[in-house]
Amino acid sequence: MESFGIFLHASFSCIVVFTFFPATASENVVNEICQRLEKVEELNFELKKQNSELKLEMTDIKSDNLELKYTVDKMNVWIKSGKFQANNNMVESNFDLEKENLKIKLEMAELREQMDDIRRVNSELKETVDEVKGWMKFKQFPEIKKSKSEIHITDEHLPRIPYHQANEGREDKSIRSVKRLIPPAPDTTEQPVAFYAYMNSYHAPSLPRHVTLVFDTVQLNDGNGYNKHDGVFIAPRTGVYAFHWSIKIDVHSWASVEIVVNGTPIGCAATESQRVSDWHTGSELVVTHVNTGDHVFLRTQENVVGYLMSNNRARTSFSGWLLYA
Question: Which InterPro entries does the entry link to (predicted)?
Answer without folding.
Answer: C1q_dom, Cerebellin_Synaptic_Org, Tumour_necrosis_fac-like_dom
